[in-house]
From TrEMBL, chain A:
The chain crosses the membrane at residues 233-254. Residues 4-91 form the SNARE-complex protein Syntaxin-18 N-terminal domain. The gene is STX18. It is found in: Endoplasmic reticulum membrane. GO terms for molecular function: SNAP receptor activity. Keywords: Coiled coil, Endoplasmic reticulum, ER-Golgi transport, Membrane, Protein transport, Transmembrane, Transmembrane helix, Transport. GO terms for cellular component: endoplasmic reticulum membrane; SNARE complex. It comes from Amphiprion ocellaris. Its main location: endoplasmic reticulum. It is a single-pass type IV membrane protein. This is Syntaxin-18. PROSITE patterns: SYNTAXIN. The keyword Membrane applies. The keyword Endoplasmic reticulum applies. GO terms for biological process: intracellular protein transport; retrograde vesicle-mediated transport, Golgi to endoplasmic reticulum.
TrEMBL record, chain B:
It is found in: Cytoplasm; Golgi apparatus, Golgi stack membrane. PANTHER family: VESICLE PROTEIN SORTING-ASSOCIATED. It comes from Amphiprion ocellaris. GO terms for cellular component: Golgi cisterna membrane. The lineage of its organism: Eukaryota, Metazoa, Chordata, Craniata, Vertebrata. The keyword Transport applies. This is Sec1 family domain-containing protein 1. InterPro entries: Sec-1-like_dom1 (IPR043154), Sec-1-like_dom3a (IPR043127), Sec1-like (IPR001619), Sec1-like_dom2 (IPR027482), Sec1-like_sf (IPR036045). Plays a role in SNARE-pin assembly and Golgi-to-ER retrograde transport via its interaction with COG4. Involved in vesicular transport between the endoplasmic reticulum and the Golgi. It is a peripheral membrane protein. Gene3D superfamilies: 1.25.40.60, 3.40.50.1910, 3.40.50.2060, Syntaxin Binding Protein 1, Chain A, domain 2 (3.90.830.10).
Length: 256, 604
């Protein structure tokens, strides 16, 4: 386990200062402050740091919107947090442009560093620094591409789901219709049966009716004859009676 | 102690490199660049733990040695990781005066003294740079971790604390004090990093005891000052401290002289013995093999290749302790699996190629797209695997060449038999006189092991015979004298030598130390039985054979973790060189033991 002796060091510094004051050696701190360390290569490090801060901004941006982007799609979340697809595309595009600019900046820095003449150690150091920045960028790109992969996968899944549900509803409808058609055919069968039955009955009725008409016609004839006979009989009875009456009358006259 | 020592030291280093703030976990954090300045000590500590790529990922654009020409880079913070020595401090003051960097984060590997701090303060004042010195830290990292459970004290200037330095005849008290201070400082840093106060056990009467006494004193002093104690704080859970104090066993090299000379058969130990292996880095010459170039032909250009054997290399982690034949097989297996995977990828490629012409199988497309994506993403892994396979093939081939040309398997088996006192099928003389088997150094090693492990000293005539055979083979007999003295002394010290079978059944050093140390153990602490963590440290140097034995021993005992450490790592060749130098100090046959072993009377 390591021991932090920084405070001990600072105490030593104080001790040495007081000792030096006592002896009379003073270090002019003010003079040196005016000649602050000349920064010969001021360009490289701040630029590299700038690229890093940019990449960090991108990373934070991606992570911030990650939830919305991926949108686990629970039904509870309000519509405010949902992103439309166009927003997502926008994010994708922006991120890509950003990453491209960052990698361009890194390449530029590398070229500059190579052109500048300096010691081998500084060259190696700068090369390694740029490697680190590139790795960082790759890491952030990985976040982005993972997100995107999830989104694309989710999109396909959604479409899949939609198609499946459509197909399912169609299937249901078709089943229903099928059932109905089957019923109708069954009913038609029954109808046809009944109609056939009725046909035979109607035929027999027809026959009967024809017979009945004939009978009625004959009956009419018979009744006409019977009436005629009746009328004839009546005539004869009438004649008899009249004859009887005349006979009577005659007789009566004769006797008279 | 859930995290290993290696992880703890790596974490400490990473923290330091992040301007002494704990590193953030989130990915894609803004890069902050910095320059790392180290001295050779710092370099040795960092290089087994962090690769250059890891340093780059942490934002370090340049890593430079302190005492090199450095150009001013005025808009960059600099992290220093150096030892607080005179010359380093002077160079830092010079840097401050020359205004090389924008801000300075000074980290000292071990604690810096007040006076040196004031030197820096006055230089900063003179350069009006006090505000630029942003942080000053004592890192307490003055040791080198090579494996999860192995550490050494230092690599630079290791001759200052080597076996030779500790055991030479003309050793002065002041020298010994300095050596002990260095060793104790590093061990103290080790325990601070580990975050635990150990229970110390050591045998009596040699350098190990001195180290133990000093370390104990230093730990007590630190703990007494409860406010500034290094052992409280967020790195340790309270429970860890009270229940799990690890056991720290100190051993002296002189207890076992045979193991450093032993020929070995496990992969890591072989590499260390046969090739140039330091700080987990192998250096080999490529191109020309062991065969001499045909007469008249221009010799093939030899290029030096270095290979790093790291924690990330799964094959290495799995097989570094395996016997060599197993390693060769496993490399073959790995190669086969790699080829199978490569073919799979090629097949996919051809299918995708056909796909463009054949409109038909759209379903096959979707299946293969998934396979292709997975193949593409596993492609870097595949390439890495290939690189490792190539690496191990090269290394194993080089080792194999050495084994074949020097017949190291014969030596290994023979030494095993010697050490386990089983019957020998060949006589020693045969092996020594055999011109094909091994270099003169190998023969010397074998003979020394024979001499050390023999219960009875060989008769004078036998000895003369052996000496003649050795001289014929081109060996230098000087180490023998030292070993004779050593053997005489150890007999007097009456510790029974017990060399178990060091290859297969891992007894060797550790169990013997435990046996001798067990007397002390039984004396006191009851909860020693519950010990789960132990640290074994060899004063005077150690090697990978002992480390491997320890690892095998730990594997067989469930739940126990053992860390191995030594003041320096040497292979047999380096050890013999040191012994040879020691012999130079000796006068012709002494009756009293050399001065080094008077420790028991002087320092008790």
């Amino acid at each position: 386990m390591a021991v932090d002796i920084t405070l001990l060091f600072k105490a030593s510094v104080k001790t040495v200062k007081t000792r030096n004051k006592a002896i009379g050696i003073g270090f002019d701190s003010t003079k040196d402050e005016i000649f602050k360390r000349s920064r010969p290569k001021g360009g490289f490090s701040p630029k590299a740091k700038e690229v890093i801060t940019n990449i960090t901004k991108l990373k934070e941006f991606l992570l911030q919107h990650r939830k919305d982007y991926v949108s686990a799609g629970s039904l509870i979340s309000s519509d405010l947090t949902r992103m439309t697809d166009s927003e997502r595309d926008q994010i994708d595009q922006d991120a890509q442009i950003f990453m491209r600019t960052c990698s361009e900046a890194i390449k530029q820095l590398r070229n500059e560093a190579e052109k500048q003449v300096m010691s081998a150690q500084i060259k190696e150091h700068r090369g390694a620094v740029l490697d680190l920045v590139e790795m960082y960028l790759k890491g952030v790109c990985k976040i982005y591409s993972e997100q995107r992969a999830i989104r694309v996968k989710r999109m396909f899944e959604q479409e899949n789901q939609r198609l499946i549900s459509e197909m399912n509803s169609l299937v249901d409808e078709v089943k229903q219709i099928e059932g109905k058609v089957v019923e109708i055919s069954r009913l038609q069968e029954i109808f046809a049966e009944k109609v056939l039955q009725q046909e035979t009955e109607i035929d027999s009725i027809h026959q009967l009716v024809v017979g009945a008409t004939e009978n009625v016609k004959e009956g009419n004839e018979d009744i006409r004859e019977a009436i005629k006979n009746n009328a004839g009989f009546r005539v004869w009875i009438l004649f008899f009676l009249v004859m009887c009456s005349f006979s009577l009358l005659f007789l009566d006259w004769y006797d008279s | 102690m859930a995290a290993s020592v290696r992880e703890k030291q790596t974490v400490a280093l990473k923290r330091m490199l992040n301007f002494n703030a704990p590193p953030l976990k989130n990915t894609a954090a803004e890069p902050v660049w910095k320059v790392l300045i180290y001295d050779r000590f710092g370099q040795d500590i960092i290089s087994p733990l962090l690769s250059v790529k890891e340093l780059r990922d942490m934002g370090i654009t340049l890593h430079l040695l302190l005492h090199s020409d450095r150009d001013p880079i005025p808009d960059v913070p600099a992290v220093y990781f150096v030892m607080p020595t005179e010359e380093n401090i002077d160079r830092i003051c010079q840097d401050l005066r020359n205004q090389l960097y924008e801000s300075y984060y000074l980290n000292f590997i071990s604690a810096i003294s007040r006076s040196k701090l004031e030197d820096i303060a006055s230089a900063a004042l003179a350069a009006n740079a006090v505000s630029l010195v942003t942080k000053v830290f004592d890192q307490y990292l003055n040791f080198i971790t090579l494996e999860d459970d192995m550490f050494i004290l230092c690599h630079q200037n290791k001759e200052l604390i080597s076996y030779h330095a500790i055991n030479r005849a003309d050793l002065q008290d002041t020298d010994m004090e300095a050596i002990m201070d260095t060793i104790v400082d590093s061990l103290f840093c080790f325990f601070v990093t580990l975050g635990a106060v150990p229970i110390i056990r050591c045998p009596r009467g040699n350098a190990a005891e001195m180290v133990a006494v000093k370390l104990d004193k230093k730990l007590r002093e630190n703990l007494r000052d409860a406010r500034n104690s290094l052992f409280t704080g967020d790195s340790m859970a309270a429970g860890q401290f009270s229940f799990q104090r690890p056991l720290f066993v100190l051993a002296d090299r002189n207890v076992d002289m045979a193991t450093p000379l032993h020929h070995t058969w496990t992969y890591q130990a072989l590499i260390h013995d046969v090739l140039d292996f330091h700080l987990n880095r192998v250096m080999m010459e490529e191109g020309a093999g062991a065969e001499p170039s045909p007469a008249g032909a221009r010799p093939k250009k030899k290029s030096r290749k270095t290979y790093d054997l790291t924690a990330a290399d799964k094959f290495w982690q799995k097989h570094k302790g395996s016997p060599f034949p197993e390693v060769a097989e496993s490399v073959q297996e790995e190669l086969d699996t790699y080829r199978a995977q490569e073919d799979e990828v090629k097949r996919l490629k051809s299918i995708m190629g056909l796909e463009g012409e054949d409109e038909g199988a759209i379903s096959m497309l979707s299946d293969n797209t998934a396979k292709l994506t997975s193949a593409m993403s596993s492609l870097p892994e595949l390439l890495e695997k290939k690189r490792l396979i190539d690496l191990h093939t090269n290394v194993a081939t080089a080792v194999l060449d050495h084994i074949k040309s020097r017949k190291l398997d014969v030596y290994f088996e023979y030494e095993e038999k010697l050490m386990s006192k089983s019957t020998l099928d060949k006589s020693l003389l045969d092996i020594i006189s055999d011109p094909d088997a091994g270099t003169s150094e190998d023969k010397m090693r074998l003979f020394l092991i024979f001499y050390i492990t023999a219960q009875l000293a060989p008769s004078e005539s036998d000895l003369e015979q052996y000496k003649k055979a050795l001289t014929d083979a081109g060996c230098d007999l000087s180490p023998l004298n030292y070993i004779k003295q050593w053997k005489a002394f150890t007999k007097m010290a009456a510790t029974p030598a017990n060399y178990g079978n060091s290859g297969v059944k891992p007894m060797g050093l550790f169990s013997r130390v435990m046996n001798t140390g067990s007397q002390f153990v039984m004396e006191g602490v009851k909860n020693l039985v519950l010990k789960q963590h132990a640290i074994v440290f060899v004063v005077g140097g150690g090697n990978y054979i002992e480390y491997q034995n320890l690892v095998d021993y730990t594997k067989s005992k469930q739940g126990k973790k053992v860390i191995y450490g030594c003041s320096e790592l040497f292979n047999a060749a380096q050890f013999i060189k040191q012994v040879r130098q020691l012999t130079c100090y000796l006068l012709p046959p002494l009756t009293c033991p050399p001065a080094a072993f008077n420790l028991s009377t002087c320092y008790l």
